[in-house]
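Margin note from the TA: students keep mixing up input and output lines. Inputs are the sequences; the output is the structure of the whole complex. Example:
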Amino acid sequence: AQSVTQPDIHITVSEGASLELRCNYSYGATPYLFWYVQSPGQGLQLLLKYFSGDTLVQGIKGFEAEFKRSQSSFNLRKPSVHWSDAAEYFCAVALNNEGNMLTFGGGTRLMVKP
Amino acid sequence: NAGVMQNPRHLVRRRGQEARLRCSPMKGHSHVYWYRQLPEEGLKFMVYLQKENIIDESGMPKERFSAEFPKEGPSILRIQQVVRGDSAAYFCASSPPGLAKNIQYFGAGTRLSVL
């Protein structure tokens, strides 16, 4: 069965600093990869996705992620964090494009210092 | 185009009561998924439905939980005889048919508290 690991449970960065959130997956083939953000008391918003092609994908709110097949990773990055980015971030995978369930990582809670 | 609508947003039940959670997918979406988020954890898949069909219920507890997505009306997640361990946030997601069916859009969730 596939699994998703987000090694960092909490991360604190200063406003304006760069950010990288780690995500590793375990699966025999290349899955479909997603990053979602959840603000307190809210649902999940899709930041970006990778299905195939260019391994560096751009998302909303200035986020990007890079798929590295050799490392089974899909890390999320942002060059300059804003206070409004404070939230919980979830990496997720789907096995195929057949309307499959998403398997989520445990999440990384991001705090932003002024 | 309204997003995925879930109601109620908050639901309080006493042990032994029934909980009914509703989800109206985005317009044009024919796939509905239910996920459960326990405190301080990620989301766990429960069930995947299309209109009038359960496609995958591998994540549903064997007892007390059921889901439906009728031809008309919202999808319903039903929990009978709730226990304290059912307290969680329940999220519904929907996706369109065709090639984009793997892109799931989430509702704001229903937070169930069992007293």
